[in-house]
Amino acid sequence: MFKWLEKNLPKIVMAPAVGLIGWFVYGFVLWTLYISFTNSKILPKYELWGVGQYVKLWASRKWLISVDNLLVFTALFLIFCIVIGIILAIFLDQKIRAEGVLRTIYLYPMALSFIVTGTAWKWILNPTLGLQKMFIDWGFENFTFDWLVNREMAIYTIVIAGVWQSAGFVMALFLAGLRSVEDEIVKAAKIDGAGLFTVYWKILLPMMRPVFFTSFVILVHISIKSYDLIVALTQGGPGISTTMPALFMTQAAFHKSQVGLSAASAMMMFMAVAAVIIPYLYSELRRENAR
Amino acid sequence: MKKIIIALITLAFTSTSSIAGPKIEVLHWWTSGGEAAALKVLKDDFAANGGEWLDMPVTGGGGDAANVALKARIVAGDPPSASQIKGPTIQEYDQEGVVAPYNIDSIAQAEGWDNLLDPMIAAVHKCQNNSGPYCAAPVNIHRIDWIWANKVVFDENGLSMPTTWDELNAAADKLQAAGIIPFAHGGQAWQDATVFEAVAMGIGGNNYYKNCYVKLEESCLRSETTVKVFDQMRKLQGYTDPGSPGRDWNVATGMVIEGKAGFQIMGDWAKGEFTAAGKSPGWDYMCSPTPSNNGYLYNVDSFIFYKTSDPDKQAGQKLLAKLMMGKNFQKVFNLYKGSIPARLDVPMDEFDDCAKASNADIKTAGAKGGLVPSFAHGMAQGNTMKAALQDIITEHFNSDMSSVDAANALADSVLANM
Fold it and tell me: Is residue B63 located within the same domain as residue B99?
């Protein structure tokens, strides 16, 4: 009896968690997939209807705008977060004084929720309350910074707020990566006559490949799921110019009585995340198996 | 010993349900200031009649969060006894089969709701395509097409309340020249649509409004009149300030109260902000309908009553429906909320001048065919079509889209969602 228990205890302990995740994550993914093939309106319905919702989705202006926005946002968010994160990490890596304090300051935005970040930036960027007003009050009469209320530029304000929030996190990842490199390697390079720039550019950063991957995967899925930041900052406006897929999805499900369409858009987002995560998991698992 | 235990267990199980009597679970989002105070009147009434009230307030996002909670409860097969649902959405829920067998209809018949309500508003609350039994109870009538103006600002600039859209534009030009923001507006999709429907009813006329936004006729949406409506929207946009996009409606009302802006176009809930700031109508601010030919855009808040097999809850639904349509609640609630009673026979002595005007106008409008449902607030169209219209209106208002393109985009958007 005890032998059996001893042998199976790990499985028994894990079973509830596996069961719950299986049902609440994978079960509901399948449920959403099913609903996306029905003609559900205000509430879910279960008669199959075909791919009509997907046809409707890709004919919708608003969806196309939101996909465009997602591409712009993801590209800029990734680039700026990683570049700023690396620069901050390299600066902090110089064994400077008060590093702990600075590190906390850079990482602190991560402790806020996107709702707080969005609301704060909404006030900072509002032309009649924030930066623009401050500069005009200081006497720069012609200063304008109205990106938040400008249809063409509003998407970039979301990038600004998003980068402010997440760059510190990327910094922490890279700093940890840089610290894990053996001192000998850097010393050897320096003896061979490499300057500081060369050491980072040719030796340390190429060694950071796994950190790049991790940041990439984390940032991409944050950006595909980004919802709260947009709700707080622009609510998809001005007009519908900063709509993103996650916002489209909730609006369709809860404001517009289009549960089926919403499920279809959720599946599109799911596939986009899967397209990023699966190759990553695959490469990680292969490496572990090779060991 | 065993017997005692059994007795105790039976007691434990029965004691919770032993208080038989009307019981109700109400899902709502009336949690702030006046609304909460008004709802308390209803709760006290309910308790005084021997009922047990299970409150289920869900705050956030003007009902968004409540909507999510409601759908989750319905999908789980356990809807609340009553919730705040209005307009054509009542029919949408009915078609899903979660409302029948219409527990409150017997009360509606006994109390004679058909005689107490305007026929058009009564129809909204009847299930089975607006002609069957009653399944929802109205609590108020909001008027959408109001102009709220700062009296001091208007007096100083020698202006009176406009009676045509040209006069309104002229007044706005004058204010702009005097360095005052003419039009306080919050650039959110629903606020853009609120202004749009007032402009559409005013410039296009009542029949145009009905053909376009109630019947959704394509030829009407593409017509020259729609282009003119969009032209006026573009003009109004020129009277807003750069900080307008994304602003909440009450912040815009605050600009009028402080005299930073001249006027706002908003439903009568804006009055609550003036009252809260200690301002009185006729002295500090003025209210008048937006220019139209006896038009009246209505928005009615209602409660819908879901299917339940529990006899206590059925009794609770009947009691609540009766109290909600009662004279006392209709008066007290609307004094708090800024709207007017849905019942036509409530004395208006305690109401202010704006509400009295609203109550008089709805009767004239009803007689002259100007009583029309608001689409921006989900009275004329279901959620899907409301969003289809709103998306284009807000896109036009926040871009440099031409009026002709906007009219065509509006028709296309409607057709795509038919």
Answer: yes
pTM listed for this prediction: 0.81
- Which residues on chain B are in Cβ contact (under 8 Å) with A238? 187, 245-246, 394, 398-399
3-state secondary structure of A54: helix
Q: Which domain holds residue B380?
A: 143-298+362-416
- How far from A266 is each of A71, A229, A252, A273, B173, CA to CA, in Å? 16, 18, 10, 11, 47
Looking at the fold, whether B285 and B378 belong to one and the same domain comes out as yes
> Does the interface predicted TM-score (ipTM) exceed 0.90?
no
Tell me which chain A residues have a C-beta less than 8 angstroms from the C-beta of B242: 127-128, 146, 149
Nearest CA in chain A to B386: A256
Q: Are residues B127 and B160 in the same domain?
A: no
**Cβ contacts of A239 on chain B, cutoff 8 Å:** 189, 394-399
> Cis before residue B341, ω within 30 degrees of 0?
no
Q: Which of A215, A233, A181, A235 is nearest to A85 (CA)?
A: A215
Q: How many CB atoms lie within 10 A of CB B51?
A: 19
Q: Map out the domains of chain A with their CATH numbers.
A: 53-290 (1.10.3720.10)
| Dihedrals phi, psi of A195, to nearest 5 degrees | -80, 175
Q: Which of B78, B240, B248, B384 has the highest number of chain A CBs within 10 A, making it the mutation to test binding with A? A: B384
Query: Residue B356: which region, alpha, beta or left (left: phi > 0; alpha: psi -120 to 50)?
Result: alpha
Q: Would you give per-residue pLDDT tens digits along chain B (418 residues)? A: 555 555 555 545 444 444 578 899 999 988 776 678 878 888 998 999 888 999 888 876 567 788 888 888 888 888 999 999 888 989 989 988 898 788 899 999 999 999 999 888 999 999 998 889 999 999 999 999 999 999 999 999 999 999 999 999 999 999 999 999 999 999 888 999 999 999 999 999 999 999 999 999 999 999 999 999 999 999 999 999 988 888 888 899 999 999 999 999 999 989 888 988 899 888 999 999 999 999 999 999 999 999 998 899 999 999 999 999 999 889 988 888 889 999 988 999 999 999 999 999 998 998 898 999 999 998 999 888 998 999 999 999 988 899 999 999 999 989 888 7
From the list A60, A126, A257, the residue facing B243 with the nearest CB is A126
